[in-house]
Design a protein that fits this description.
Seven copies of one chain form a homoheptamer. Chain A has one domain (about 10-95): 10 Kd Chaperonin, Protein Cpn10, Chain O (Roll). Chain A is about 0% helix and about 40% strand. Chain A has strands at about 5, 10-15, 35-45, 65, 75, 80-85, 90-95. Chain A has a six-stranded antiparallel sheet with strand order 5-6-2-3-4-7, with no helix packed on it. The radius of gyration of chain A is 15 Å and the shape is globular. Chains in contact: A-B, A-G, B-C, C-D, D-E, E-F, F-G. The interface of D and E includes residues 65 and 94 of D.
Chain lengths: ~100, ~100, ~100, ~100, ~100, ~100, ~100
Amino acid sequence: MNLKPLGDRVIIKADEAETTTASGLYIASEAKEKPTTGVVLAVGDGKLDKDGKHLPMPVKVGDKVIYGKFGGTEVTVDGEDVLILRADDLYAVFA
Amino acid sequence: MNLKPLGDRVIIKADEAETTTASGLYIASEAKEKPTTGVVLAVGDGKLDKDGKHLPMPVKVGDKVIYGKFGGTEVTVDGEDVLILRADDLYAVFA
Amino acid sequence: MNLKPLGDRVIIKADEAETTTASGLYIASEAKEKPTTGVVLAVGDGKLDKDGKHLPMPVKVGDKVIYGKFGGTEVTVDGEDVLILRADDLYAVFA
Amino acid sequence: MNLKPLGDRVIIKADEAETTTASGLYIASEAKEKPTTGVVLAVGDGKLDKDGKHLPMPVKVGDKVIYGKFGGTEVTVDGEDVLILRADDLYAVFA
Amino acid sequence: MNLKPLGDRVIIKADEAETTTASGLYIASEAKEKPTTGVVLAVGDGKLDKDGKHLPMPVKVGDKVIYGKFGGTEVTVDGEDVLILRADDLYAVFA
Amino acid sequence: MNLKPLGDRVIIKADEAETTTASGLYIASEAKEKPTTGVVLAVGDGKLDKDGKHLPMPVKVGDKVIYGKFGGTEVTVDGEDVLILRADDLYAVFA
Amino acid sequence: MNLKPLGDRVIIKADEAETTTASGLYIASEAKEKPTTGVVLAVGDGKLDKDGKHLPMPVKVGDKVIYGKFGGTEVTVDGEDVLILRADDLYAVFA
């Protein structure tokens, strides 16, 4: 991806929500549960501390993460819907 | 658990709410009191201080804790409902 | 008490509210004035400063204190109702 | 007074509001203007700075002060109504 | 004035609002525009910095100042109406 | 101007709003668009840092600036309407 | 551009919103989607740290950026509509 998040932001590709239930019933897109897991596509340099140095970022490209449902801004880049959010809105990373 | 909380967050498995009262009456799940005690499943590295070092976390895996009823985010990991919350939302630990 | 408050929190056992008035009239529990004095049962290690050291706590176990009416969280531990609140919600201590 | 305020708090005994006007008319207690001057009965050790030292308090016991009308918490100690408030809610001291 | 403001506060005597308009019409007191200029009567020692030292105050006794219309607290001292406000609510000083 | 702004404030003389449109139509003063450009008339010494030193101000007397429409306080000094606002409410300066 | 943003602000020229849809239908300007990408026209010196030094800015003139839809202030300079916003309202930069 040729898009670099700024500051302590990351770019996330949300996981596809399941479109079939356990019973095999198809769910229309309006009813799909908003996903809260995704994969990190890009990572910013980190927040600046008072001396102008970057604080370390807690995740790296490729990490699978859980993030806040209402955090971030959805943007469409090269026809792909991604989410830009701050590292602090990431709750956990799959090890 | 293969899920690592980020920053000063912990992952908690809430205790089961009592499903029988002292008189033995079964209480349906809608009426169950929301538990506020639980066990720590995973602990983040701690909040970053201004120098990029992690501040120590007050609990460790396996600790039984009391936490704020409305704190945190419920997530389902591997079919298990857990709670991700910040260490500051933990009120006390059983010694 | 086997419960240790975290950070700058303390555990308080509220004083019993008076159940008889000066005129000797019994007051039902619904009408009892919420007590604002109590005894300190347990004390946290103190808030972390920027260097990861604990700041001193202003009270010790056994102190009788005045605290904010709406501060804190009520929990029941071993059948006993206690209050967990932050040291900053303690207003004064009886010398 | 055997009550010690905590942190940057002070205990104030509010001045009696005037109960007669210039014209000698008695004013019932409901109509009395809430006093905003009082005398300092007790002084806390001061707020902790980042190194765990107490910052100096701006008033001492016996000082007559002007304070914010809506600041503080009223408590009754040994049958006496006093006010506990933070030093920052004190506006001025009579020299 | 025997009243010393605390912290970064100053005591201001508001200028009299004009009671006659350019056309000589008298304006009743209810209609008088609230003055926003005044004279500094007393100056506090300044806000405490983290080391317990006082930061310098930007005005001195006798300065004529412009201040925020809604800032401060009106008090009556020795029959004189004055205003206690924080130095930061002073906008400018006449040189 | 004999008026010195305090702290990080500046005094601005707003540019006259255009009173004729491109078509030559006169616009009554009620309909005039509020100007957001102006000239700096006076500059404060700057905000105090924690050591009591003044931080540098980003503009100087005579600079033409763009500022926030709703920022600042309008005052009339020597019959001239000027605006006192904080340096942070200045958006840009014409080079 | 002869306009220099102050502090941590940048000046952005928003990209033109598409005025034809995929089906070739013309969209009137009222219905155009507000653009959230643009080009950096000018960059401020950066926010002052506590020592009066400027923190580095994350973008440079000519960078194409994604920014918050509701961030910033629209101004018209030399007949050109541009946006002044803070660097923190920039989400990402195209590499």
